[in-house]
Amino acid sequence: MPTPRVAAIHDLSGFGRCSLTVAIPVLSAMGVQCCPLPTAFLSTHTGGFQGFTFLDMTEEMPKISEHWKSLSLRFNAIYSGFLGSERQIDIVSDFIRDFRTGETVVVVDPVMGDDGRPYQTYTPAMCAGMTRLAELADVITPNLTEAAFLLGRDYKDLPGGGVHSAHDEQALRRLAEDLSLNGKRSVALTGASLSPGKTGAMCFDAKTGKTEAVQTKFVVHPLHGTGDVFASVLTGALVQGRPLADAAGEAVEFIHACAERTVSQDLPLREGVDFEPLLCRLMYR
Ligand code: PXL
User: What pTM was computed for the model?
Assistant: First the structure.
């Protein structure tokens, strides 16, 4: 099989392991070529650091897309995440329309916020735009906060919203199905806990119509960038042709191993999960 290729549309944060500094190594380890289309260049991510720099790449993005079009580049997946401006919603939507073929998997990680709140740089207009962008996706990977934003519901009313107890399984199943736009797109809802001490994802697979949970042991610490690790491993596994729940299972197992390693060394949580020494576990065989 030729090496699969993914267009990765995320920010590049120089410090704090998230977005492209996660997507590039994870996809490479999985035997997938990652082609970055940066949305912004920051000195650090915005969660837990003060005074970060932010270079908006909005003007550059259509030029990159035009050049790639002139080269007739093809991608097995288009994978988007953190965006830098409201205008980027249309730019990324156009990119998807221009590059999607019958074989492309479009993964939209609707990065907007966590713990019921939007990230510092996200405006209400960007969140509304993200909902429109996510309509183009084959697969979305929201956390519970983003699920609330996508559905226009109050985070506090969602199963498990605001509390770290086990969530109601039926309610989480319904939530994943509600996010599927009547079965049109697949959903991997992250931060879904079915029993105390466990966490994982509730997956609705639009190909089979089945809803299935994957669970792992919960490491009780607010680790940064786990959503990016999840979506990157999931995307890598999907372009390898694996089914959604299988891909999500690999992602949650990998995050659990990285989270344990990070916490056992007492590493600063804002620096993200210490995944590099474990990348060999993702190696494509
Ligand atoms: O992990 C999501 C994310 C991505 N990129 C940037 C962020 C965040 C979350 O805080 O700040 C720049």
Answer: 0.97
Q: Is residue 280 included in any domain, yes or no? A: no
CA dihedral (91, 138, 284, 76) positive or negative = negative
Q: What is the CATH number of the domain that holds 126?
A: 3.40.1190.20
CB of residue 227 inside a 6 A radius of ligand 1: yes
What is the residue with the minimal CA distance to atom 7 of ligand 1? 45
Q: Is residue 285 part of a domain?
A: no
Residue 56 lies in a domain: yes
Q: Residue 284 domain-assigned?
A: no
Q: Work out the pLDDT band at 220, boundaries 50, 70, 90.
A: confident
pLDDT digits (tens, 9 = 90+) for 97-122: 999 999 999 999 999 999 999 999 99
Which residues constitute the domain of residue 255?
Answer: 5-270
Q: How far apart are CA 86 and CA 126, in angstroms?
A: 5
Between 64-73, 178-187, 262-271, 272-281, the lowest mean confidence (pLDDT) is in: 262-271
Whether ligand 1 lies within 6 angstroms of the CB of 228 is answered as yes
How many structural domains is the chain composed of? 1
Q: Give residue 211 CA to ligand 1 midpoint distance, Å.
A: 28
Q: For 164-181, how does the pLDDT look when each residue is reduced to its tens digit (9 = 90+)?
A: 455 688 999 999 999 999
76 lines ligand 1 (CB under 6 A): no
Give the C-alpha separation, 21 to 198, whole Å.
27
How far apart, in whole angstroms, are the C-alpha atoms of residue 56 and residue 18? 17
Among candidate residues 17, 14, 10, the one with its CA nearest the CA of residue 274: 17
Share the mean pLDDT of the chain.
95
For residue 145 and ligand 1, the question of a CB distance below 6 A is answered with no
